[in-house]
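Inverse folding, one chain.
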């Protein structure tokens, strides 16, 4: 069963996402400039993780009663594995976001607004890419092998480039924006643009937003093919992706102050991509069960986190 998503299921899920975004933006302080504390970030991280588990339990319950326990177990496992993959790979976003904010000297109290728009942009981009990818995979199944090759190459490249920091000043999109837009010299609070003498200027925070959205797009290109190694069900791919992205802002503020302690995690993420790509390439000869994939991914991520903590033990 390659598509369990009935129209009402899509509608309910999208409605829940919109409600949670509205609560975050307008009820729980998301529209006020403030520095997000570790406690607040931890609470929101637990909320999003809990909602993902609750959704998965509800999905299993619905499928168990409608199509049987075998498909219910399979789809629930696919969702959780896909969620774990996307959540793990989103940690790499955190390192890039931190680099961007540091390079532009963005105060912590202004970062949350940029990340709100970053998350909204990421949701739209991933929705389009997932639906397009699901159609391509359905019509041309051999594309999965191209995804596999791409993931292996990306993983190896991440291993080689893990310690190299990108030069933001040489970013072509940033250079294009600076050449063609009027950019003010200083920040203006959380504003992305201001009027000076009747002329519209964009603030440096707008450049930061552009880089955040571009990095979201780049990471989507890496992460979306990865989940197609676990399932080609559009509903599972979409929901697991969106749940991971919705918790990205909280994850950033949770890890921002201790990101240096997880410097070896990049190697674990790179090996995850190589493993997933290899899994897709060997399908004609051997199919790695989803349970085994989940175990391997958990071990790779867990080992890289443990190694990072041991290597930085006792350091500030």
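Residues assigned per position:
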């Amino acid at each position: 069963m390659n598509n369990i998503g009935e129209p009402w299921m899509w509608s309910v899920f999208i409605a829940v996402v919109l409600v949670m975004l509205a609560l975050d933006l307008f009820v729980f302080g998301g529209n006020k400039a403030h520095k997000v504390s570790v406690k607040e970030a931890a609470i929101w991280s637990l909320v999003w993780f809990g909602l993902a588990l609750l959704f998965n339990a509800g999905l299993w319950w619905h499928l168990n009663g409608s199509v049987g326990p075998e498909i219910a177990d399979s789809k629930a496992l696919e969702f959780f594995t896909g969620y774990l993959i996307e959540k793990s790979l989103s940690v790499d976003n955190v390192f890039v976001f931190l680099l961007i904010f540091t390079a532009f000297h963005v105060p912590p109290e202004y970062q949350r607004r940029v990340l709100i728009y970053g998350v909204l942009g990421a949701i739209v981009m991933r929705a389009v890419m997932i639906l397009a990818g699901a159609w391509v995979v359905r019509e041309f199944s051999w594309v999965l092998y191209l995804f596999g090759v791409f993931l292996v190459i990306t993983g190896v490249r991440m291993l080689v480039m893990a310690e190299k920091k990108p030069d933001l000043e040489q970013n072509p999109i940033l250079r294009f924006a600076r050449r063609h837009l009027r950019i003010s010299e200083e920040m203006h609070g959380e504003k992305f643009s201001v009027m000076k003498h009747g002329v519209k200027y964009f603030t440096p925070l707008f450049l930061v937003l552009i880089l955040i959205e571009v990095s979201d797009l780049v990471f989507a290109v890496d992460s979306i093919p990865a989940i197609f190694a676990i399932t080609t069900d559009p509903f599972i791919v979409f929901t697991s992706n969106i749940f991971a992205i919705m918790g990205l802002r909280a994850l950033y503020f949770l890890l921002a102050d201790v990101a240096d302690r997880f410097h070896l995690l990049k190697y674990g993420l790179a090996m995850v991509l190589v493993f997933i790509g290899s899994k897709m390439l060997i399908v004609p000869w051997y199919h790695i069960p989803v349970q085994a994939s989940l175990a391997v991914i958990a071990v790779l991520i867990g080992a890289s986190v443990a190694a990072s903590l041991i290597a930085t033990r006792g350091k500030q």
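Residues 7-311 form one domain. The radius of gyration is 20 Å.
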